[in-house]
From TrEMBL, chain A:
It holds the Pfam family DUF1416. This is DUF1416 domain-containing protein.
Automatic annotation (TrEMBL), chain B:
Keywords: Repeat, Transferase. Pfam families: Rhodanese. This is Sulfurtransferase. It comes from Streptosporangium carneum. It catalyses: thiosulfate + hydrogen cyanide = thiocyanate + sulfite + 2 H(+).
Length: 98, 279
C-alpha cells in the first residue's frame, strides 16, 4: 500500500529497507529545546516537508540533491534556519542548538 | 460557511473541554502521537486503520463510518472538533470525510496539535470512556469528491490546484521530503494545474492565514473563482487542507478534493502529464 504522508519515526539510524544510494538524506540533532519541529525549505524558501523532532532531538529528510534550508520551529515563537546541502547517496548531518 | 463557523482556537477548546455535545477528535496517520499524549477528553481516529478500506483503495463505506463514530461515542448532533499533527493535514482530511458522510457540525482546531504543543498546553494519556452511540451517516456527498475521470475532464477547463511542494510539482521529488522517495509512479503534474502549495495557506505554527491573505494567494496564482475547482496532492490529505481553505473558509461553492491524487494519477496509463514549471 502506498505510504501515507505522515513522517516515519525519527531515529538515529536510517529506517530498515532504505537504499541510501537512491536517497539524498539531510538529518540532524536539535538540542536546547522541548517540543520542536523541523521544516525543510527548498531553494526558494518553500515548504517541502516537516517532521516532529523526536524526544532524542532527531530529524531526517529525504531530499533531492541540492541546496536546502532546515528551519527549526520551537515554542515561544523561536525559529532557526540552517542551510544544508544534500547529495545523492549521502547523509548530510546537522547539529542545531536552539 | 465562514472562518468563525469552521475554526476554533486553542483558548476556545480549553474553555469547552467539559462541554456537553462537543467531542474532540485527534486524527493522525501516526496513531502513536495520541498515545503519547492528547488533549484531555479527545478520542482517537487513525487515518489508516479507521478511515481506509482494508482491502480496496477507498474509504470505509457508510456502514463502516457509522460503526466507527458509534464506537467513538459520537452522536449525530455532536459538534466534532478535529485536530492532528502534520499541520492538521489528516484532521483536514477527516473534516472533509465527515462532511462527505454528512456530519453537520464539524470544526478544526486552528494550528492543530502543533500549535497546542508549541504553546505548551496540557496533553494527557487518559483515554476517555464515551458511551457508544447509534450514529447514522448519509450517502457520500460527491459534490466535494473528485475522481480521476473528473480530473482528466477538467484539464484546461476548470481550476486544477496542485497543492504539493514545487519540487513534487515539477517532478524533482515523488513524495514529501520527510518520506523516502517512491518510484512506483511517474513524476510531474496534471496539465494546466496551478502549483499552490498547501503551506502557503498556513503560518509556521500551523494556523491558517487571514481571509484576505488566502483570497489574494489563490487569485494571485491564477485561480478563477468563477470556475469550479479540483484540488489534489499525493494522497489527498494536503489537498483536503486546501479544500478546507477554499470551500470552508473562502466559501467557494464548487470545490472538490481528488483523494486519489498523484499516487493514482501518476500511475494511470495514457493520461497527459506535464513536467517542470506551470505553463
Amino acid at each position: 500500500m502506498t505510504q501515507g504522508c505522515a513522517a516515519p519515526e525519527q531515529t538515529i539510524a536510517l529506517p530498515a529497507g532504505i537504499d541510501l544510494s537512491t536517497q539524498a538524506v539531510i538529518q540532524g540533532v536539535v538540542s536546547g529545546t522541548g517540543t520542536a519541529y523541523a521544516r525543510l525549505l527548498d531553494h526558494s524558501g518553500e515548504f517541502t516537508g516537516e517532521v516532529v523532532v523526536s524526544d532524542e532531538g532527531i530529524f531526517r529528510f529525504f531530499a533531492a540533491p541540492g541546496d536546502w534550508t532546515v528551519r527549526i520551529i520551537a515554542g515561544g515563537g523561536v525559529t532557526k534556519d540552517i542551510p544544508a546541502q544534500a547529495r545523492l547517496g549521502e547523509v548530510t548531518q546537522l547539529a542545531v542548538a536552539v | 460557511m465562514s472562518r468563525s463557523a469552521v475554526l476554533v482556537d486553542a483558548d476556545w477548546v480549553e474553555a469547552n473541554l467539559d462541554a456537553d455535545g462537543i467531542v474532540l477528535v485527534e486524527v493522525d496517520e501516526d496513531a502513536s502521537a495520541y498515545d503519547k499524549g492528547h488533549i484531555r477528553g479527545a478520542v482517537k481516529i487513525d487515518w489508516r486503520q479507521d478511515l481506509q478500506d482494508p482491502v480496496r483503495r477507498d474509504f470505509v463505506d457508510r456502514e463502516g463510518f457509522q460503526a466507527l463514530l458509534s464506537s467513538r461515542g459520537i452522536g449525530n448532533d455532536d459538534t466534532v472538533v478535529l485536530y492532528g499533527g502534520n499541520n492538521n493535514w489528516f484532521a483536514s482530511y477527516a473534516y472533509w470525510y465527515f462532511k462527505l458522510y454528512g456530519h453537520e457540525n464539524v470544526k478544526l482546531l486552528d494550528g492543530g496539535r502543533k500549535k497546542w504543543e508549541l504553546d505548551s498546553r496540557e496533553l494527557v494519556k487518559d483515554v476517555p470512556n464515551r458511551p457508544a452511540t447509534n450514529y447514522q451517516a448519509k450517502d457520500q456527498d460527491l459534490s466535494i469528491r473528485a475522481f480521476r475521470d473528473d480530473v482528466v475532464a477538467a484539464i484546461g477547463k476548470l481550476n486544477l490546484v496542485d497543492v504539493r511542494s514545487p519540487d513534487e510539482f515539477t517532478g524533482k521529488l515523488l513524495a514529501p521530503a520527510h518520506l523516502p522517495q517512491e518510484q512506483a509512479q511517474r513524476a510531474g503534474h496534471v496539465p494546466t494545474a496551478r502549483n499552490i502549495p498547501w503551506s502557503k495557506a498556513a503560518n509556521d505554527d500551523g494556523t491558517f492565514k487571514s481571509d484576505e491573505e488566502l483570497k489574494a494567494l489563490y487569485e494571485g496564482e491564477g485561480v478563477d473563482f468563477a470556475k469550479d475547482t479540483i484540488a489534489y496532492c499525493r494522497i489527498g490529505e494536503r489537498s483536503a487542507h486546501s479544500w478546507f481553505v477554499l470551500h470552508e473558509i473562502l466559501d467557494q461553492a464548487s470545490v472538490k478534493n481528488y483523494d486519489g491524487s498523484w499516487t493514482e494519477y501518476g500511475s494511470l496509463v495514457g493520461v497527459p502529464i506535464e513536467l517542470g514549471e506551470a505553463r
